[in-house]
Design a protein that fits this description.
Elements (H helix, E strand, L loop, with lengths): L1 E6 L5 H7 L4 E7 L9 H9 L5 E3 L18 E5 L7 E3 L7 E3 L5 H11 L3 E7 L12 H13 L1 E9 L10 E9 L3 H5 L5 H8 L18 E4 L4 H7 L7 E5 L2 E5 L11 H4 L12 H11 L2 E6 L5 E6 L28 E3 L6 E3 L2 H7 L12 H10 L3 H24 L8
Parallel strand pairs: 1-2, 1-4, 2-3, 4-7
Antiparallel strand pairs: 5-6, 7-9, 8-9, 8-11, 10-12, 11-12, 13-14, 15-16
Length: about 425
């Protein structure tokens, strides 16, 4: 059983996926929403996992790593916010590198520095690979170099959940880091980067890809040694898959071996409450919002321009998986799912339970908070089924580690 620290836990998507494998125990989970008095996500998390592990509802920057040392942490997981990861030297120049205050990635680095977990599994929006727009790839390069400096190798993959059999076209980047003193890393030192991505690495077997050559050229480069140099000058074009070992990066575009997704019709509830149905006025608003537009606008500087956007399906096709769910789901806006109910033939929004199903959560997982917050929490959540696959892959690697120790007792000091 691997001991897990879950950061930025939300309503427990990482935990549900990992615990479904029966190989992980979340011994400490943290969820704190600084801008809200009501802590709905934490309350849901604490209620659903009552009596199992420690539940922390405090600012992660105030949590001392020393308080977690006795928990013997094997893995840190979390879906952290996409922020500005730039760094600078401290004013004195003697205290090393400083990241911007409040940037939660640095809390992951801080805890990893002191707890030295074997593994980290992280999730973020895929635009992380290209941010910021004025220095493409800077932020992700800072992250990779930070893990390099801590003695980890890193693999990443952008995964669209629907392409691997899930109910939502939700695209996210997943980042797997493993300590360099592991037998997993040592046994693969001579395996070529492309072979790691497509056949031998962390994501390869759980999320197989085709052998088709990419339309975009693969890229390989060495990260600068100095984090400040990366932050101020370095940029790169990261593809949807890649690996970093000892500061050497290889990245290429891969295509998934597609699996049949769960479709919207498969997750639709019966006998839906009247409150989810739309009035004629609301339907008209949705028709406008989801329709094609060309609107003349004037910028703050007085410049006139044409704002245009294409049309969206209205109502949603039920024979396809859902689109990416946002925190504004269920409100009258362009991104909300609107369907024709198969039973009544009337137009409505998705219910909170249907949104839970889009992410692979059990029905009524978020029950006990307002509908608005239920939608919000699901818009922030991840697809549980993907995490279960990744958890099973980590257990395969852990088995490999334990067999290496058994066959080479001198390696007992590895971890």
């Amino acid at each position: 059983m691997l001991n897990v620290v879950e950061l930025f836990a939300g309503v427990g998507g990482f935990r549900l996926g990992l615990e479904a494998t029966n190989g992980f125990e979340v011994v400490w989970g943290n969820q704190w929403e600084p801008s809200r008095r009501a802590q709905d996500a934490f309350d849901c998390y604490a209620r659903r996992f009552e009596g199992r592990g420690i539940h922390s509802n405090e600012d992660i920057s105030k949590v001392e790593a020393s308080s977690l040392l006795d928990l013997n942490i094997d893995i840190i997981v979390g879906g952290f916010p996409c922020q500005d990861y730039s760094v600078a030297r401290s004013l004195s120049g003697e205290k090393g590198i400083q990241g911007k205050k409040g940037v939660l990635f640095w809390e992951i680095v801080r805890l990893a520095t002191d707890l030295r977990p074997k593994y980290l599994l992280l999730e973020n929006v895929d635009r992380l690979l290209k941010s910021p727009s004025k220095q493409r790839g800077r932020d992700f390069s800072v992250m990779l170099a930070s893990f390099r400096d801590l003695g980890y190798s890193v693999e990443w993959r952008v995964i669209n959940a629907a392409e691997y059999g899930q109910a939502q076209r939700r695209r996210r980047v997943f980042i797997f880091a493993i300590r360099n003193d592991s037998s997993y890393v040592k046994a693969r030192e001579k395996i070529e980067d492309q072979q790691m991505i497509k056949k031998e690495g962390f994501f390869a077997s759980a999320f197989p890809v085709t052998d088709e050559p990419s339309k975009h050229k693969a890229d390989s480069f060495i990260l600068p040694e100095d984090l400040v140099d990366i932050s101020e000058h370095f940029y790169s074009n990261y593809k949807n898959a890649g690996i970093m070992r000892d500061g050497v990066v290889f990245t290429e575009e891969v295509s998934p071996k597609l699996e049949d997704p769960i479709t919207l019709v498969d997750i639709i509830e019966s006998n839906v409450d009247e409150k989810y149905y739309l009035s004629e006025t609301q339907i008209e608003k949705f028709e406008y919002l989801k329709g094609p537009k060309k609107i003349e606008r004037t910028s703050a500087s007085g410049h006139s321009y044409i704002f245009s956007e294409g049309g969206m399906a209205f109502p949603e096709p039920l024979n396809k998986p859902g689109r990416t769910m946002l925190t504004s789901e269920g409100t009258i806006n362009r991104s909300s799912h609107v369907i024709e109910d198969p039973e009544t033939k009337r137009i409505r929004v998705l219910t909170p339970v249907e949104c839970e199903r889009l992410n692979g959560f059990p029905d009524n997982w978020t029950e006990g908070m307002s509908d608005r917050m239920r939608y919000f929490c699901m818009g922030n959540a991840l697809v549980v089924g993907l995490i279960q696959r990744m958890g099973e892959r980590i257990l395969e690697i852990e088995k490999e580690e334990q067999e290496a120790i058994k066959n080479h007792p001198q390696q007992l000091s590895l971890f």
